[in-house]
């Protein structure tokens, strides 16, 4: 079963409270989503491999460590995942970015894929699939299945707010994918919105409602 990492850090919790607030402006919402994503990726990259190298300081030669091993790719689920990209790139500037376009059918709540473009070397990278919201889990499950169909093996999923139902569904569908989530909320409502949540993440990021 995959691991679920929650973030109880005060800075993350404070910023999550701000994005829940319906009075938070689009500008602040965007900035906060980026900041939370940056704080989360600090933890999500904890298991990156290091190798020892020798460097010359102005004083002497020393052995020290630098990143080695698998490079990272960031895969935002369109649209709302886009809001997390720059925050992650702040800490992992050499990551490549691919895109998966999915929307949730408003009647059936099922995800519909309309776009997929990945880095050419996606199968050699560790891919971080990102989306602020994990509600039923349908979008994340389909996005990850789509990557696996294209040969990707190393995947993590990062979201800001999740419903327990979404976490359970994602763990069941993809037990090899670790989940990083800033806040696990109470439940889904009849329209499959997260309660208390923050509303529609895409609309709040892009000011479309
Ligand atoms: C939202 C959100 C997730 C999805 C979560 O996107 O950004 O992708 O819903 O719901 P699920 O876990 O039940 O699949 P939406 O479909 O509203 O598309 P948008 O980002 O284009 O607004
Ligand atoms: N998508 C959102 O943007 N918000 C929710 O609460 C559920 C799905």
Distance between the termini: 38 Å
Q: Which CATH architecture is right?
A: 3-Layer(aba) Sandwich
CATH class: Alpha Beta
- Per DSSP E runs of 2 or more residues, the count of β-strands stands at 13
**Sequence of secondary-structure elements:** EHHEEEHEEEEEHEHEEEH
What is the residue-mean pLDDT, rounded to a whole number? 96
Which band does the percent of strand residues land in?
25-35%
Category by helix and strand content: alpha/beta
The tally of helices reads 6
**Main beta-sheet annotation:** 9 strands, mixed
Rounded Rg: 18 Å
CATH fold-level label: Rossmann fold
Query: Which ions, cofactors or small ligands are bound in this entry?
Result: 1-O-pyrophosphono-5-O-phosphono-alpha-D-ribofuranose, uracil
User: How many domains, in number, for the residues?
Assistant: 1
Topology:
Blueprint: E1 4-6, H1 10-20, H2 26-44, E2 50-56, E3 61-67, E4 72-78, H3 82-91, E5 96-97, E6 99-104, E7 111-117, E8 126-130, E9 133-134, H4 138-149, E10 154-162, H5 164-173, E11 178-184, E12 187-188, E13 194-195, H6 201-206
Parallel strand pairs: 1-11, 4-5, 4-6, 4-8, 8-10, 9-10, 10-11
Antiparallel strand pairs: 2-3, 6-7, 12-13
The protein binds 1-O-pyrophosphono-5-O-phosphono-alpha-D-ribofuranose and uracil.
